[in-house]
């Protein structure tokens, strides 16, 4: 049974003639007759009597009545979805990874809420694996995180490409360099975020192929960029850091030679999410507050987080 068959029997009920019903449905008469016969066979009941003009059987009248109800509900559902796509009003649960939340949300969220008073957010800072699980189990509506996720159940809407910078103490060789070559990185004196942060995975991907004897007088792992920066400011090694989390004009900050490593930041929703206009408005608001060079270009390396 399908909606098309229901439309055919309703057309037959209206026109009481196979030729006119077929013309109304923009199909050939044999096609319409065959589809109606298949429906009757599936339901094991005759819907129309073989009379001229056609007349529904008693059971057929009930089936046709139910078919009208079903098609009306389908129409109502389509109208609802269309309305949902256009509307951004409602209460939404927004997940953001900790390495983005304090640096990105203050730039756009307050202005966004003022501009759209019918929209409200409950914001949760969650690590990437938690966000994926929450989206799949309907505990989050929208997320802002680093992609790609490569998950068929999650839809990704890329927003920007944030450069990854080097933040170095004064006593290291990097401090005297204008630009840093990725090939010179090693684990020596490298300060990392703790396990579970996607940015740690990106740093490890950048440094994993580097050789050399690793020496750690201090093996320090932190949950925040602010702690790592404070350690570097006091001559405890170096770290890698996304540009939004640092004053890029600081003498401790060094850019990499082209192509720069970047992290792809995206909106993510479950594949069944329908509030298209909300995604559009959120992306638009974020794009307005990020530096122009965060937009995609050909001279960058997208670093995976996993």
Automatic annotation (TrEMBL):
Coiled coil start-end: 64-91
GO molecular function: DNA binding; DNA-binding transcription factor activity
Protein origin, superkingdom: Bacteria
Keywords: Activator, Coiled coil, DNA-binding, Transcription, Transcription regulation
Short name of one Pfam family: HTH_1
One GO cellular component, as annotated: protein-DNA complex
CDD domains associated with the record: PBP2_OxyR
UniProt KW NAD keyword: no
Gene3D superfamilies xref list: Periplasmic binding protein-like II, Winged helix-like DNA-binding domain superfamily/Winged helix DNA-binding domain
Domain HTH lysR-type residue range list: 1-57
Family: Belongs to the LysR transcriptional regulatory family.
Protein name as annotated: LysR family transcriptional regulator, hydrogen peroxide-inducible genes activator
